[in-house]
Amino acid sequence: MIQPRLTSRIYHFPSYRYNHGYNDDPAYTSHSHGWSSGPTPALAFYVLGLTLTMPQGKTWAISPHVDRSLPAAEGGFKTSFGWFSVKWTTVLSTSAESGGRKAERVLLRIDTPEGTSGHAPG
């Protein structure tokens, strides 16, 4: 429950060290809440395309969203099964299939824990 201070219009969360001498100590101030609710999940689930299809990642799917404005992306997270990570990079290369012309290719690296299974492009 949020409680207002009697001397100001500042609100405090009693369970967040307020009753134990918080005193605006920056060591206890976290500004990470916005990251955990927006950009971080967007990176993992949309840009990297890492989706857990069963609880804790017993099965998974990879479907990265590659965009020319972003030349590379890398990230991951841990569940009770272990570490899941995806890294992709776009490179220009010349191949026989492209008739000697430069073509954009995507290099994809996937690391998943043993005992899990899934599918990825390619």
UniProtKB/TrEMBL annotation:
Protein source organism: Psilocybe cyanescens
One of the protein's GO biological processes: carbohydrate metabolic process
Protein name, as recorded: Alpha-L-rhamnosidase C-terminal domain-containing protein
Superkingdom of the organism of origin: Eukaryota
